[in-house]
Amino acid sequence: MSSKHQNTNPVNRLQSEGDLNITEERRLWNQRAVSAETAAWLERDSQVFLHQSLSTPCLDVIESSTNAEIENFQGDAYLDFHGNSVHQVGYGHPKVVDAIRRQIEKLPFCPRRFTNQAAVELAEKLVELSAAELTRVLFSPGGTSAIGMALKIARKVTGRFKTISMWDSFHGASLDAISIGGEAIFRQDAGPLLPGAEHVPPPNPANCPFQCGSACNLQCADYVGYVLEKEGDVAAVVSETVSSVPFFPPLDYWNRIRAACDRHGALLILDEIPHSLGRTGRMFTYEHYEAVPDILVLGKGLGGGIVPLAAVLCKEEFNIAGDRALGHYTHEKSSVACAAGLAALEVLVEENLVSRSQSLGDQALTILQDELRESACVREVRGLGLLIGVELEDAVLKANQLAEKVMYGCLKAGISFKVSMGSVLTLAPALTISESDLERALRTVCSMIQHQTKN
Predict the structure, then answer these.
(1) Which of 208, 253, 299, 354 has the fewest beta carbons under 10 Å from its own?
(2) How many CB atoms lie within 10 A of CB 438?
(3) Higher pLDDT among residues 398 and 406, named by residue
(4) Are 428 and 82 in contact (CB under 8 A)?
(5) Helix, strand or coil, per DSSP, at residue 79
(6) In angstroms, rounded to a whole number, what is the distance separating the alpha carbons of residues 256 and 262?
């Protein structure tokens, strides 16, 4: 193998949808001056939690969060453009908090074998909002477990076990989820994973083995059809509708794969855990592509930015496992989580946050593209609603070094976001953020990019 194809830097090898805490820039960040109280809590965290590259040792200690902001012990506020993708309706929305409080006082827990009003109403609301074909629902306490249920449903419905998923994708951290996921940081040295978990290239022109250039030419979509034909017995194609990095498939991408699945008897499972529920300017991300999945997986923001909650939606004809246990989770029909979810959906609708995400996203792209048009280190600015990516490249600094310098500089200026795949600044604020805060944050990002490239 030629040297240009070798990847000897372990940090580069472990690039993921999140920034790592094992880099030189993180070491420098950790040396900054902090209060004695902050330093003590960071040390206690480091001493009690297992260390892992996407969390402990941590960036800072957060004391409070409200709407689009988080605040540390020193009183420094960060506009949160990360939020682990849970904060569509902002942090601590009064309607969500009130719904949780009322449910805790009335029904704090619903034992398995029973149902409750909040769970039924939330399931009905999701069915009402989604495509007509998706009429059945399961809840779980997290996105990873929901992915596991989706895989079980696909096996039961098709009688098959193989899957096709994307390299560089993320579907959760459990063994079944990392089997279909495509990030080395989760898969490396994990030992045997699920059998039959095949992987194909994602629709990312920046790293395309089909050499499609600046725009995806859909050879990757056709390749999925080729693998389906050659394997002959695939249960499901499993993918994020759009990548959280982010990058966005061409409009016909999912129609081609939908047709290929239908030809070969495979189901289409779309994972919209991070970016559904208004993030991209539609209630559900698949609506941009007019290709309805057989199984849809939701999570993160479904709990209103407070309570862990995920959901699986699927077709009526998949209701064939009455003699099995697909989920059976202790908090499957959590009365409190479902009350939060129902309130969050009501906020999205009543406050027009889905259309607001689209309009604010358009404004954001205009600001970023205007400010960064002449920047030689910006490869591309792209976005869908309030899921925005600024991809960097640089002839002097490596792109991942530049991206981290920009990120830590923005953190010092009170703007928090993540770096994805080493070189993409991923910007995903609360849909409730004010226009002035959004503009201020974006101009800070642009200024930091320009500052770092001048130096």
Answers:
(1) 208
(2) 22
(3) 406
(4) yes
(5) strand
(6) 10
d(C-alpha 247, C-alpha 256), whole Å? 18
What average pLDDT score do residues 5-30 get?
A: 73
At 85, is the secondary structure helix, strand, or coil?
A: helix
The secondary structure element, H or E, covering residue 198 is: strand 197-200
DSSP three-state, residue 104: helix
Beta-bridged to residue 238, according to DSSP, are 269
Q: Which residues contact 285 (CB under 8 A, 6 or more apart)?
A: 241, 242, 270, 272, 275, 276, 279, 384
The amino acid that residue 384 corresponds to is L
Q: pTM score, two decimals?
A: 0.95
| Tokens encoding 320 | 């064939």
Q: Which of 221, 246, 206 is nearest to 17 (CA)?
A: 246
**Contact call for residues 69 and 430 (beta carbons, < 8 A):** no
Cβ of 199: how many Cβ atoms within 10 Å?
17
pLDDT tens-digit readout, 28-77 = 998 888 889 999 999 999 999 999 989 999 999 999 999 999 999 999 99
Instruction: Give percent of the chain above pLDDT 90.
Output: 87
Nearest Cα neighbor of 312 from 173, 117, 148, 425 is 148
Q: What strands lie across the sheet with 197-200, from one edge to the other?
A: 134-140, 310-315, 295-298, 267-271, 234-240, 162-166, 197-200
Amino acid at 148: G
Q: Which of 93, 126, 7 is nearest to 307 (CA)?
A: 93
Is 174's pLDDT higher than 60? yes
Domains of the chain with bracketed CATH: 3-89+353-454 (3.90.1150.10), 94-350 (3.40.640.10)
The contacts found for 351-355 with CB under 8 angstroms, 24 or more apart, are: 351/89, 351/432, 353/88, 353/89, 353/278, 353/431, 353/432, 354/278, 354/281, 354/282, 354/283, 354/431, 355/281
- Buried b vs exposed e over 100-129: b needs ≥16 C-beta within 10 Å? beebeeebeebeeeeebebbeebbebbeee
Output DSSP code: residue 94: H
Calculate the dihedral angle through the C-alpha atoms of 155, 160, 164, 169, rounding to the nearest 10 degrees.
Answer: 20
| Kind and range of the H or E run holding 337 | helix 335-350
Please, which pLDDT band fits residue 12 given cuts at 50, 70 and 90? low
Q: CB within 8 A of 165, min separation 6: which ones? A: 171, 180, 181, 182, 197, 198, 199, 200, 237, 238, 239
By residue count, the chain amounts to 455
Per-residue confidence at 161, pLDDT binned at 50, 70, 90?
very high
